[in-house]
Amino acid sequence: MDAVDIREVGPRDGLQAEAPVSVEDRVRLVEALLEAGVRHIEACSFVSPKAVPSMAGAGDVMARVPRAPEYRYAALVPNLKGAELALDAGVDELTVTISASETYNQRNVRMSVEESLTQIEKICTLATSADIPVDAIVSCAFGSPYEGAIEAADVASLARRLLDGGAARITYADTTGMATPPLIERLTRAAGDVDGLHLHDSRGTALVNAFAALQLGVRRFDTSVGGLGGSPFAEGAAGNLATEELVYLLDDVGYETGIDLNRLLEASTLVAGIIGHPVASRLAEAGSRN
Ligand code: COA
Ligand code: ZN
After folding, report:
1. Beta bridge partners of 169
2. Domain 5-280 maps to which CATH number in 3.40.50.720, 3.20.20.70, 3.30.70.260, 3.40.190.10?
3. Confidence band (pLDDT; 50, 70, 90) for 236?
4. How do residues 79-109 score in pLDDT, each as one tens digit?
5. 43: nearest Cα among 1, 9, 19
6. What global pTM score does this model have?
7. 3-state secondary structure of 49
8. Ligand nearest 237 Cα, by number?
9. Which of 8, 101, 113, 272 has its CA 20 to 30 A from that of 162?
10. What distance in angstroms lies between residue 62's CA and the mean position of ligand 1's atoms?
11. 51: CA distance to ligand 1 center in Å?
């Protein structure tokens, strides 16, 4: 059976959009995800605690999550300082954030796109010497709340510069859920192929985009348990594609994820309790078939 790599971003993208919760609860969420069979988790971000108070204490989270050779922890970093802290904390992978939208990049990381590229090159040099891969997340890859349409050719050329600068792989992010299947196809053609996708469901298109992407050969997705998530720096951001909704689809279509849907729904219930309100996932609301 064909395998799909799901990187669970709920502990980072999910919780960054919520009021701060304790390190203990963040670790409990990671543990529940591991129990459901999730093996690839973006556990936190090493960012300014003033910019994103919910991600303060990232080092404490990393120090307390269970470790095993098959568990792969990523952490998001915006700059070299974040990368140094993340490597010290023992992450297995860095995700670096940069945007195809100049305005969003400025709002998100207070740097121009060119300045972010310079930071990322430095991050790649540091991470490569520690044998840690860098995944460059290109946000607003299908449209920006500030500049509107973003040309696929511009996104593809940014991706090429990131790979030239030392990134091991690229994940294209639909930060405010603007993509539709034709836009995914257009980017695939412009970029040659799409390695990974990070989808948001602001306009109800995340799952259909994932299905279209699968048919185009994409086998790596970022998703968030419960459909939590959203950048506090992008107008109109809403939750990520819910992990349980993608797993529900993949189970039926016949892709291997290693994730147990019913255990994952338990993690979804847990996170709703942690954040203190219902999650966006419709599958969590309706329940699975069995
Ligand atoms: N981790 C922790 N602290 C950091 C940091 C990092 N990666 N980078 C900078 N800081 C600290 C500095 O030490 C400084 O602290 P001080 O005020 O106690 O001296 C403070 O943050 C400001 O540093 P500066 O370099 O001037 O940053 P800035 O104010 O221009 O902000 C970022 C730039 C990138 C640090 C900030 O915008 C950020 O963290 N953005 C992340 C956004 C994010 O997570 N978005 C989520 C969607 S992808
Ligand atoms: Zn996101």
Report:
1. 135
2. 3.20.20.70
3. confident
4. 999 999 999 999 999 999 999 999 999 999 9
5. 9
6. 0.98
7. coil
8. 2
9. 8
10. 19
11. 6
